[in-house]
Amino acid sequence: MGKRGVPMExxxxxxxxxxxxxxxxxxETPIGNLVKNAELEIVxxxxxxxxxxxxxxxxxxxGIFTLDLLSRGSTVVGIDLSLPMLARARxxxxxxxxxxxxxxxxxxxxxxxxxxKTVSVTALEFIEDAAAAVRELFRVTRxxxxxxxxxxxxxxxxxxxxxxxxxxxxxxxxxxxxxxxAEMASLAPASCETHTAVHFLKEENPERAFEIEREGKGSxxxxxxxxxxxxx
Length: 232
Fold this sequence. Notes:
Blueprint: H1 20-27, H2 30-47, E1 54-58, H3 66-70, E2 75-80, H4 83-92, E3 98-102, E4 115-121, H5 130-140, E5 141-152, H6 157-167, H7 181-185, E6 192-197, H8 206-216, E7 224-230
Parallel strand pairs: 1-2, 1-4, 2-3, 4-5
Antiparallel strand pairs: 5-7, 6-7
Helix pairs in contact: 2-8
């Protein structure tokens, strides 16, 4: 503990080490499952994983979305700073062509153009130099390949709540960075598509949340913000 009982700052690679089980368990709750399905719909629509694709999942965590890429016949290299997260992803992906690597998205240990597609889901909000991270994803993606990045949307009510949790000392949200659709689009010079999901709040009744999500399609204020670029 730091002064006056404030938790000492953890190194970035240790930040998520205690969270694998809690992280997965939340997505198994009724509202967490709705969140995952809403987010997954966008990720799959933007990335379009296909048999034979070599995909980099940058910040793959426990493999929440990785399995959906693998189940469509793609080969996936998953990187993460947290080795406990990677270990959990490896166990889930047993039997699939999944290759976990402990690495930093800002310094990817791959030669240029190694991947058909790259994806990063909810990792960018913990990276100050977002443009550098996106440049790395572009670098390792082949020409004509797809880059998809998803993050937490600053225009969503979820962002205000997460910031308040951070001010109260929540270890994951103390230094989280929220970005808007316009800010995300500016991270690369190429043209892009943006889309958001999760227009309901965490405490919403699941049945009502489903309706809110359906009604919110097309809005730019969903908590989950995804951007898609194609490398020239």
